[in-house]
């Protein structure tokens, strides 16, 4: 996959950036998310991003060395927050695996309904990053998957989950990935203001997840 090199700032632009107030890193991140989502990482330039947030091209280099580094930063930041929220939801749900699974799915789905642009960029544009930059993102994604595997394992051990077997065996990692794929892709089609709001959609997905793992009725 051929990558487009980030545009370099000229000397006059750098001097202009030194005279202006330090730009908001969050404004740059928000503009990058929007630009990458609407047009795709390869065609968006540093100039496009900075124009979108009302700053000079050279201002970006106060925070990021390149467009690659900016992409890595925005994906890493949203991924880390997703992992934190999932951990917190499960921790607050108590010891019941059914409550943990429902809390995990509701949190995951709500975030993907609310932050559709961020989810789109994180899942579609990650392929433009080199292996070194993508490694910590994949570590976080594995950690989220393993939270789910732990919930499934606990539910089976406690006799409250009875997920399907294939040839007499259960592949909990495959089940976890299937659930995560289902929840992740809501960001591709969900539109606010339709029949179900975010909270209702999160509840629907939680109920579907519980049924898919054969959760026993209370």
């Amino acid at each position: 996959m051929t990558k487009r090199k980030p545009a370099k700032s000229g000397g006059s632009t750098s001097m202009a950036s030194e005279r202006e107030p330090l730009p908001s890193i969050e404004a740059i991140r928000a503009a990058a998310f929007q630009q990458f989502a609407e047009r795709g990482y390869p065609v968006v330039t540093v100039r496009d991003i900075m124009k979108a947030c009302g700053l000079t091209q050279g201002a970006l280099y106060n925070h990021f060395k390149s467009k690659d580094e900016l992409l890595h930063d925005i994906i890493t930041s949203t991924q880390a927050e997703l992992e934190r929220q999932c951990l917190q939801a499960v921790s607050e749900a108590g010891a019941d695996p059914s409550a943990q699974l429902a809390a995990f799915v509701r949190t995951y789905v709500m975030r993907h309904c609310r932050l559709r642009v961020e989810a789109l960029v994180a899942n579609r544009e990650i392929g433009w990053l080199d292996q070194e930059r993508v490694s910590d993102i994949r570590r976080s994604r594995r950690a989220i998957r393993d939270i789910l595997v732990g919930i499934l394992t606990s539910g089976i051990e406690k006799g409250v989950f009875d997920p399907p077997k294939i040839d007499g065996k259960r592949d909990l990692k495959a089940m976890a990935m299937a659930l995560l794929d289902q929840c992740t892709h809501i960001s591709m089609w969900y539109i606010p203001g339709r029949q179900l709001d975010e909270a209702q959609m999160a509840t629907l997905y939680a109920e579907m997840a519980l049924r898919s793992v054969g959760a026993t009725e209370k």
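Residues 1-23 have pLDDT under 50 and may be disordered. The two ends are 51 Å apart (CA to CA).
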